[in-house]
Amino acid sequence: MANHKSALKRHKQSLKRAARNRAARTRIKNVVKAVRIAVQNKDQEAASAALVAATSVLGKYSGRAVHWKNASRKVSRLAKAVNSIKE
Q1: Which fold has domain 5-84?
Q2: pLDDT tens, residue by residue, 35-45
Q3: Closest CA to 55 of 36, 25, 28, 26
Q4: What is the pTM of this model?
């Protein structure tokens, strides 16, 4: 454990940020899963709505909890999957 006041503060900040990032990554996983389930069930309406929500969440946490290129790639692949079930 750190002994200096500044190091203690740094440690507390890192724990807080780690918890925030963990929550964000969990939220991202959940919205991505919702899109994938809707695509799997071939439910166009639900997939489109879930894609909008997922794009919003990924955009919000892009560059913070996940790398911006990772977020962009996820949005692209989800959009491609949703468009594949259109008839």
Answers
A1: Methane Monooxygenase Hydroxylase; Chain G, domain 1 (1.20.58)
A2: 999 999 999 99
A3: 28
A4: 0.88
